[in-house]
Amino acid sequence: QLKLLTTAFFTVTLLKRHISTRRWLALGILFCGVVFVQNPSGGKGGGGLTSQSPVLGMAAVTCACVLSGLAGVWLERIVKSSNDVPIWLRNMQLGSISLFLGIVSVFVVDGEAVAADGFFQGYSWVTFFVVVQVSLGGLLVSLIMKYADNVVKGFATSLSIVLSSLVSWFIPSFNFVPSASFLVGSSLVIAATLLYSTIPAKAASASAAADAAAARAYKGTDKSHEEP
Fold first, then answer.
1. 21-28, long-range: CB within 8 Å, 24+ apart, which pairs?
2. pLDDT-derived band of residue 18, with 50, 70 and 90 as boundaries?
């Protein structure tokens, strides 16, 4: 969940958006809360896996967090700086790239199985429901990019982790029992969300003015790039 902080960092550096000290505190609390929620309980350290490298693993995770935050903020920059391009067209452009890469991956990994039994082997109504649900989720993410920002998406993702865990509590087959770590983490996530969203009126007006100035600066930058 370090990507919560890297996303905020790139939001400030790339989008020139102001994040108040209060909101940085909320992000720190959110980070701690999600760590507590996702903390595995009752597990023991990897017995006998001597090939593991904590340094290499931490470096890989850090790189993934930095790249994830950079990609999300850069996509937000593209979406918000090109108001003349409809958001649905942007979705089709990004979807076509993902579709191409997905098809290539399917035929490289499972080409023989697809040739023998078809592409939709093993599909059921549950599979189609998941496909539709993920597609709608992608559309919602694009709307968040357009009308909100990546930091808000991070809060939504953190809350979804807590809500999905609570739903799992009521499904017997999951055998999920909330631990003390989960309860502490959930409380921190909710507190961070409230702290981030409820800001003083003066701070809200200052933040809105800073965002408007940043948007005007990006429009001017884009126009200068388009000129020969």
1. 22/195, 22/196, 22/199, 22/203, 23/151, 23/195, 23/196, 23/199, 25/195, 26/192, 26/193, 26/195, 26/196, 27/151, 27/192, 27/196
2. confident
